[in-house]
Amino acid sequence: MSKFAMYGKLTASPGKRDELVLILLEASRSLKDMAGCELYIINESVDDPDTIWVTELWSDGEAHAGSLKNEEVLAVIQRARPLIAGAEQVRLRPVGGKGIDV
Amino acid sequence: MSKFAMYGKLTASPGKRDELVLILLEASRSLKDMAGCELYIINESVDDPDTIWVTELWSDGEAHAGSLKNEEVLAVIQRARPLIAGAEQVRLRPVGGKGIDV
Predict the structure, then answer these.
(1) Number of Cβ pairs closer than 8 Å across A and B?
(2) Is A100 within the bounds of a domain?
(3) CATH number for the domain including A42?
(4) Sorted alphabetically, which Gene3D superfamilies does this protein's record hold (chains A, B) (predicted)?
(5) In which domain, by residue range, is B43 found?
(6) A58 touches chain B (CB under 8 A)
(7) Angstroms from B85 CA to nearest CA on chain A
(8) How much is the ipTM here?
(9) Which of B11, B16, B27, B55 has the fewest CB atoms in 10 Å of its CB?
């Protein structure tokens, strides 16, 4: 099965990006021990003050889907929700490059 | 200096995505030994048959800018150009997460 990658775009409510980043950093700590999660990098947009992009790489799509049932992850989503004005996904199929084994 | 990340969106000319992916994979091999380049992952969009997204992570913005002066990289850009119908960038400031040291 091929790996699964995703860019998750989150638009924070105005002025709430820093707070949302902190919650996502906390979420990433609960992913440290999750074997199927290879990358979960939180980025601030350089050009848009309310936007966060999360770079995700998973061993396969099932690992990603499974993570969304994890209790810690669900608790973080609940806390983050009031700070989020919008969310979009870019779904990706990694084919190779530097920093990935496919 | 903080790290620099980027999503590079490339729209291939119709039917040319596979060919463009091969050129980018070749480019990524010439980046293997470039110290400032931490990630250069080539992804096919799941939802758009002409789209490629490249996930880039660099030690800093200067390392990225420097790579664009590298002869091998320039040669690859020249070869790829006729296959590219459009290009966009999302410029990012990584703040932490899994798979990155900041």
Answers:
(1) 115
(2) no
(3) 3.30.70.100
(4) 3.30.70.100
(5) 1-48+81-95
(6) no
(7) 19
(8) 0.93
(9) B16
